[in-house]
Known about the structure:
binds iron/sulfur cluster; mainly alpha
Amino acid sequence: MTPKCEYYPICPFFTDSLVSGMPSTAKLLKEKYCCDGYSKCARYQVMVEAGEQYIEDSLFPNHEEKAQAIIARVKSEKGS
Ligand code: SF4
């Protein structure tokens, strides 16, 4: 499993601290997002568009709608 996402060394989803109890789900998501379509990852999108501090532990790579809501909220708070 070779990650393409630049954030994998610091991402707790990839490093397993968030998903240690669900190895098969985590493996599928890592292959789909971390190793392939990282730009579609909810965590990646929040990192790039809003900032690392806004990535909630409960945010999984496939939570795109939740990511868009976080990004919209942060942009609105920042007035941009
Ligand atoms: S979960 Fe998302 S942000 Fe984290 S390493 Fe994978 S693609 Fe990157």
